[in-house]
Design brief:
Oligomer: homodimer
Helix content of chain A: 55-70%
Radius of gyration of chain A: 19 Å
Number of helices of chain A: 6
Number of strands of chain A: 2
Structural class of chain A: mainly alpha
Strand order of the largest sheet of chain A: 1-2
Distance between the termini of chain A: 33 Å
DNA sequence: TAACTTGTAACCACTTGAATTACACGTTAA
DNA sequence: TTAACGTGTAATTCAAGTGGTTACAAGTTA
């Protein structure tokens, strides 16, 4: 099990919109950078648009950032591309036996624990911004 | 996307082994508590055995805990049932375009960030033990 | 009007999860 | 020693999700 690559592709798209902000970032152009097809890029870009992260309009070529670089956290991207339904990172088996002490209480006991772990993950994603990612990309590029 | 219920079932099994330690915990008995089938329980129990968490032998009815309750963290269970390959909680799109600044550096930039987030998740799971879960189950059961 | 782009839907191949069935093999007790 | 029972494991099935691809309606611009 892995969290969908939509997340990393979303980060890729937003970084590219910044680094290539002088150019026109069509779905076709972005797809070539990501190495996938334009339809998938449009789908993800649509999700980022719904989350208020990018501007993109039917018929008009190119997407642009809708927020400051430093104001877009990876958590926002994570949630935007909908890779994990809210509070459902961990799957919990359904319908345990109510006639059993464990079965009767396992779900209520585990849920808050899973929730804490999930929040820890989200917190870690929440402190990193696309600006950080763009900086990392540019720095790495210099050293090569 | 959700992390496989094997994880929560694994926790269920271990908790049951403790709470029903006076009885004989066959795969059939456990399956009735979890509300699934015995074959799946045997599969997961086998994983827990490989991780050194339970004792179970062919032909001999019942599984037992192989470690102290307080010495089994949820992280161990998480890793035992193999729900997430090592360092691969987040999927990263393959083969981005090396002719593009972003494509050339995105993977190396993102990986350490994802790694930090994944470790935060694991850390949260590492501080909770099966003993805590069992205590939670018993406490919840009293209040109902 | 023609060319181009976005937004979507539809379809496919592939992987994974979970349920289920079946059976070989180990153990135990009559 | 044989019958009953339990574990280990493989095979099958069904459902769901992911990512790739094609196709096309609708918006925009030259």
């Amino acid at each position: 099990m892995s969290i969908s690559t939509r997340f990393s592709v979303g980060i890729h798209i937003l970084s590219l919109l910044e680094i290539n902000k002088e150019g026109v970032n069509t779905s076709d152009f972005i797809a070539k950078s990501v190495n996938t097809n334009p339809a998938l890029i449009r789908k993800i870009t649509g999700m980022l648009k719904n989350a208020g992260l990018v501007n993109v309009r039917p018929g008009i070529a190119g997407a642009t950032l809708a927020k400051e670089l430093s104001d877009i956290t990876l958590l926002e991207v994570y949630q935007a591309v909908n890779v994990v339904s809210d509070k459902e990172l961990f799957g919990i088996h359904e319908n345990p036996n109510p006639a059993c002490t464990v079965g009767r209480n396992i779900q209520d006991t585990i849920e808050p624990i899973f929730s804490v772990a999930e929040l820890a993950l989200e917190k870690a994603l929440g402190v990193v911004t696309i600006e950080d990612v763009v900086r990392g990309i540019l720095e790495k590029d210099k050293t090569n």
